[in-house]
Write a structure and sequence with these properties.
The complex is a heterodimer of chains A (110) and B (113).
Chain A (H helix, E strand, L loop, with lengths): L8 E5 L4 E6 L8 E7 L6 E6 L2 E4 L4 E4 L5 E6 L8 E8 L12 E6 L1
Parallel strand pairs in A: 1-9
Antiparallel strand pairs in A: 2-7, 3-4, 3-8, 5-6, 6-7, 8-9
Chain B lengths: L3 E4 L2 E4 L5 E7 L5 E7 L5 E9 L2 E4 L6 E3 L9 E3 L8 E8 L7 E3 L3 E5 L1
Parallel strand pairs in B: 2-11
Antiparallel strand pairs in B: 1-3, 3-8, 4-5, 4-9, 5-6, 7-8, 9-10, 9-11
The chains are: A mainly beta (110), B mainly beta (113).
Chain lengths: 110, 113
């Protein structure tokens, strides 16, 4: 499995756009990039998944450059309720379980 | 109302005691997982199961046991061999292979008395 590297923590003010970058230099051809969000004392929940270029849903956008060695999760106009840990995972969706690293702890400040 | 349920929400274990954490899903998912999370840390995989009557060890299986007798159920037993069991335990399921998107339960917090 491709290893991922994310910043340990980030701070942002309410209303700002937050971009969390994940490095995955050894990503394989069949690997997808998936992001999860975890609030304190809850299980993680799926946010977004992509393979290349850009994916957008009602929660976030995911930007993946052509070489796919990194990806950026973009959260538009964050609010206090976006304070959580965000995990970047890379895998092919086959028979090998995905690996959750330590994630990025985002703190949104009023 | 589909989803994953875990019980109990809090569980207390005495020294030398085995305890079992329940995980049930009505999503008709094939794969199920158990993770352990320590404060400020990420999730570590304990066991996973792709089909009924089959399961594999994850990264930290020592001191734990599981069974998968029914598709919807994947109970985890924390045995007395697990010397540091205090943690937040999360169960998840996915529709296909174990690398697919996972859906998590609310978790069980295990404390040692």
């Amino acid at each position: 499995l491709a290893k991922t590297t994310q910043p340990i923590s980030m701070d942002s003010y309410e209303g700002q756009e937050v971009n969390i970058t994940c490095s995955h230099n050894n990503i394989a051809t069949n690997d997808y990039i998936t992001w999860y969000q975890q609030f304190p004392s809850q299980g993680p929940r799926f946010i977004i998944q992509g393979y290349k270029t850009k994916v957008t849903n009602e929660v976030a956008s995911l930007f993946i450059p052509a070489d796919r060695k990194s990806s950026t999760l973009s959260l538009p106009r964050v609010s206090l309720s976006d304070t959580a840990v965000y995990y970047c995972l890379v895998g092919e969706g086959g028979n090998t379980p995905l690996v959750f690293g330590k994630g990025t702890r985002l703190s949104v400040i009023a | 109302d589909g989803g994953i349920t875990q019980s109990p929400k809090y569980l207390f274990r005495k020294e030398g005691q085995n305890v079992t954490l329940s995980c049930e899903q009505n999503l008709n998912h094939d794969a199920m997982y158990w993770y352990r999370q320590d404060p400020g840390q990420g999730l570590r995989l304990i066991y996973y199961s792709q089909i009924v009557n089959d399961f594999q060890k994850g990264d930290i299986a020592e001191g734990y046991s599981v069974s998968r007798e029914k598709k919807e159920s994947f109970p985890l037993t924390v045995t007395s061999a697990q010397k540091n069991p205090t943690a937040f335990y999360l169960c998840a399921s996915s529709i296909g292979g174990v690398g697919e998107t996972q859906y998590f339960g609310p978790g069980t917090r295990l404390l040692v008395l």
